[in-house]
Specification:
- The protein is 17% helix and 25% strand.
- It has 119 residues and is of the alpha+beta class.
- The chain has a domain of 67 residues.
- A four-stranded mixed sheet has the order 3-1-2-4.
- The longest helix has 15 residues.
- The chain starts with 17 loop residues before the first strand and ends with a strand.
Length: 119
Amino acid sequence: MSSARRCSRTACGRNASTTLTYVYADQTAVLGPLATYAEPHAYDLCDAHSERLSAPRGWEVLRLSQDPAAQGPTSDDLLALADAVREAARPAPAEIPGPAAETGREVTRRGHLRVLTSD
């Protein structure tokens, strides 16, 4: 099975290159770069179908251009990865000492509370 996503249009077998979503409240069709994951409320389209896309009367088509620089990891991604590696390499904090031994004697209990005497 191929990992490439196909165009959502019926009988089109080409690879998808863009993702179409609708913003019903704004009467806008948004055509942008191919989404990372296939979403149930979005449509993946090939180049041919994305170029011929039209919206219903009164709707606006918003075409988001693909940024070629955004294809790979950014410097922010690399810095975040380096910070995560540094954090994982830090030694574990010293164990917090437990409470001192109790000096009193339990007299009674009320729910989860204990009443102690101070001998």
